[in-house]
């Protein structure tokens, strides 16, 4: 039958279904088979030939027919899984049913009355058709999920057959050990099957259906407690699914082994369509959804991992019941970590590849899914996190992350990407090794829209953060606390900042310490505290190599004097705020020598008008997001926050007074009747008295006269002589006793878990455009907005 006839017949069947007012019996195979048995329709055809309005009409007018359609389609998938899909016809039926369910499921999820449908058992659906079978019949959702899992390891359909003969006694699908059929070499599997276009496309279609099953989460509003588990994911990742381990491994290995550049032939991707990429994208999306698990609330006992051989670490106590999270958290072999890290770095760096031939290498677009996956790996598997930080390989993650942050900074539709990038750097910055690694010289010249500098990866990080703060869009302001916390966390380990980075830090201090900025919001002074803490850490712990920063501090000494003499009387406070209303632009760029941007870079562009974006829930404040720890002499961390008083106001001075003032949010400021916050003298005094200026003031007191003397003696206007003097200077014995190093480590909390859920599903919603699985359905987890 020709493709046109096939489409026509399929369309006729759809019209019959929408116009029938009487229920069609489930036994009427002649009617139901029209939907899958004799058609060869692509998934795009199914979306075109089954319009949304008609699905909704059937749902409202003849619900029993929609129920039967779903039930029959699931039944066909179950039969395919049981028989092993030997004939071409059976394979076609499975694919058609899979496409049809992918089309219809979102419309079932969007109607609360239908929500329980897949979790109910269908009368008479017992295996044998007898009466007593109903009692142990599975809910439809479970049958569907188990069938998809079986079909993903179906020889000659989705995996290579191991049988040499073509006899019909092909492998019995029920007794097949799917661990021998893992899709790709990597974690726990050494054999890489030969590439097979058909297997890859069949896997992709089934994974798309699986993702659609999981997407019920999109139709529930964001809940304050993120603990509500997704029943589809919960069942699929439980011991009920005998393929959980091989499927988890297949998905992870398929993503991490993917090399988009292929065999390095330029323009290769323009000649051959890459059938692997859609599979890798789908695998990455399914992985991050199955790993949607609130680590803050997980302490549930679970099955013991005795069957998992040596790939997973059995010494650990049993982890969460979600087996995907469990397996991920127990990977422990160095070579597995190396494989995962190399693969992630390769894919994240791919959009940065610059070649002399324009468009000659393939660019992957799923970096947001990869960043979420990297986050999950670090969050659920601490051994992986330590492995990443053990060598300078972490910089292969850092550089692309900074590239994405810098590139997205002006684009309203990519706020979510900005957050995930910053969260990852915050998580890494809680570990001493990250700060140490940043001292490696930065030589990879990825074209970025930032000033040219010669220096280390720390310089790169500071220059990019400065660019985000001074030239990003307004919606990024909640991230400023996070960005500066990262700089504070790494500052005690930075051996030598470049002049460019030193000037950027002082420019930020200048911008944040203007009176109108300090007085215009209750939290703004925190940013000054963070920056002072950075300077104090470097002066106390890394004075020797940091003459550039010391010189910049001396040049901008007036800023520190102004802070020390900050006015606290009401008339001056009000005058400062009046002045603000006349000066637009929140952070002026004056005073920062921008310098030329790197060659070959494109300026960060705002979103095209009309770009779709999804809304995000608010992220917790930095004090909820992090936990303060003090670094002891031997380098170990000691938490400074007993459970009881987390988030409480100060009881009195504690180690590292500089960080304390940030807790005093509104106690002493006044909120007027209109609900408008306004600063008071007491409020300004309450934190001004805690500004940690002693170290810097002492440094200025000692060095400024010496520097001025050199200038007078030698008639100098030349920086190099002064820098040479500062390089050999020492402040030993002249500075206050070094303060203990304070680190603010990321801590898991339900607020971030909910944020990740909305962000991840928003990305998946927007990235699935062909076919547009969820487009124009009534999602509740986020709003779809246009820029």
From TrEMBL:
Compositionally biased residues, Polar residues: 667-678
InterPro entries linked: Hid-1/Ecm30 (IPR026705)
Chain intervals for the UniProt region annotation (Disordered): 296-315, 575-678
A Pfam family annotated for this UniProt entry: Hid1
Any one GO CC term of the record: membrane
UniProt biased composition (Low complexity): 297-311
PANTHER family with a match to the protein in the record: PROTEIN HID1
Protein name, UniProt field: Protein HID1
Gene encoding the protein: HID1
């Amino acid at each position: 039958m020709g493709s046109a006839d096939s489409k026509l017949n399929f369309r006729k069947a759809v019209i019959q279904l929408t116009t029938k007012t009487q229920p069609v019996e489930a036994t009427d195979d002649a009617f139901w088979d029209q939907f899958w048995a004799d058609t060869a329709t692509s998934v795009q055809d199914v979306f075109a030939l089954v319009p949304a309005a008609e699905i909704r009409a059937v749902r409202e007018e003849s619900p029993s027919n929609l129920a039967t359609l779903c039930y029959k389609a699931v039944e066909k998938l179950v039969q395919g899984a049981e028989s092993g899909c030997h004939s071409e016809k059976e394979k076609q039926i499975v694919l058609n049913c899979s496409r049809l369910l992918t089309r219809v499921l979102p419309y079932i999820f969007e109607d609360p009355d239908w929500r329980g449908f897949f979790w109910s058992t269908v009368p008479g659906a017992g295996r044998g058709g007898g009466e007593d079978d109903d009692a142990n019949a599975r809910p439809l959702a479970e049958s569907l999920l188990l069938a998809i899992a079986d079909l993903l390891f179906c020889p000659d359909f989705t995996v290579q057959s191991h049988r040499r003969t073509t006899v019909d006694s092909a492998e019995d699908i029920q007794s097949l050990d799917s661990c021998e059929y893992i899709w790709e070499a990597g974690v726990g599997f050494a054999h890489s099957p030969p590439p097979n276009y058909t297997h890859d496309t069949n896997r992709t279609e089934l994974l798309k259906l699986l993702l659609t099953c999981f997407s019920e989460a999109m139709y529930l509003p964001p809940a304050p407690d993120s603990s509500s588990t997704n029943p589809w994911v919960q069942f699929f990742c439980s011991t009920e699914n005998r393929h959980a381990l091989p499927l988890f491994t297949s998905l992870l290995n398929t993503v991490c082994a993917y090399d988009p550049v292929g065999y390095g032939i330029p323009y290769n991707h323009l000649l051959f369509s890459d059938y692997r990429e859609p599979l890798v994208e789908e695998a990455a999306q399914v992985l991050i959804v199955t790993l949607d698990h609130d680590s803050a609330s997980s302490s549930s006992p679970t099955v013991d991992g005795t069957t998992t051989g040596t790939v997973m670490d059995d010494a650990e106590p049993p982890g969460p019941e979600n087996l995907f999270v469990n397996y991920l958290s127990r990977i422990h072999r160095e070579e597995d970590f190396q494989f995962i890290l190399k693969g992630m770095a390769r894919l994240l760096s791919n959009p940065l590849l610059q070649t002399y031939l324009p468009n000659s290498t393939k660019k992957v677009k799923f970096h947001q899914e990869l960043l979420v996956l990297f986050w999950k790996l670090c969050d659920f598997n601490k051994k992986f996190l330590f492995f990443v930080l053990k060598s300078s390989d972490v910089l292969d993650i850092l550089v692309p992350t900074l590239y994405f942050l810098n590139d997205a900074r002006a684009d309203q539709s990519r706020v979510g990407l900005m957050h995930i990038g910053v969260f990852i750097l915050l998580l890494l910055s809680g570990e001493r090794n990250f700060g140490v690694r940043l001292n490696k010289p930065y030589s990879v010249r990825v074209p970025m829209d930032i000033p040219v500098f010669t220096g280390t990866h720390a310089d790169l990080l500071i220059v990019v953060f400065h660019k985000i703060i001074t030239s990003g869009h307004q919606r990024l302001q909640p991230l400023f606390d996070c960005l500066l916390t990262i700089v504070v966390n790494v500052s005690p380990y930075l051996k030598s900042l470049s002049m460019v980075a030193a000037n950027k830090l002082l420019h930020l201090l200048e911008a944040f310490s203007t009176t109108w900025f300090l007085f215009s919001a209750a939290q703004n002074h925190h940013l000054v505290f963070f920056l002072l803490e950075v300077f104090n850490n470097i002066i106390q712990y890394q004075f020797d190599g940091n003459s550039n920063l010391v010189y910049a501090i001396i040049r901008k000494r007036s800023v520190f004097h102004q802070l020390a003499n900050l006015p606290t009387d009401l008339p001056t406070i009000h005058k400062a705020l009046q002045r603000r209303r006349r000066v637009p632009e929140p952070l002026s760029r004056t005073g920062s020598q921008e310098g030329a941007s790197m060659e070959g870079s494109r300026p960060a562009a705002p979103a095209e008008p009309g770009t779709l974006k999804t809304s995000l829930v608010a992220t917790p404040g930095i004090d909820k997001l992090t936990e303060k720890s003090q670094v002891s002499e031997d380098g170990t961390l000691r938490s400074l926050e007993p459970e009881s008083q987390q988030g409480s106001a100060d009881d009195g001075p504690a180690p590292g007074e500089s960080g304390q003032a940030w807790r005093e949010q509104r106690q002493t400021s006044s909120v007027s009747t209109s609900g408008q916050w306004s600063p008071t003298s007491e409020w300004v005094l309450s934190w001004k008295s805690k500004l940690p200026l002693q170290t810097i003031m002492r440094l200025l007191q000692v060095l400024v006269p010496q520097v001025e003397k050199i200038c007078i003696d030698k008639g100098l206007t030349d920086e190099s002589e002064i820098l040479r003097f500062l390089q050999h200077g020492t402040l030993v014995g002249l500075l206050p006793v070094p303060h203990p190093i304070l680190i603010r480590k990321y801590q898991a909390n339900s607020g971030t878990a909910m944020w990740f859920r909305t962000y991840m599903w928003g990305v998946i919603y927007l990235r699935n455009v062909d076919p547009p699985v969820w487009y124009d359905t009534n999602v509740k987890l986020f709003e779809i907005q246009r820029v």
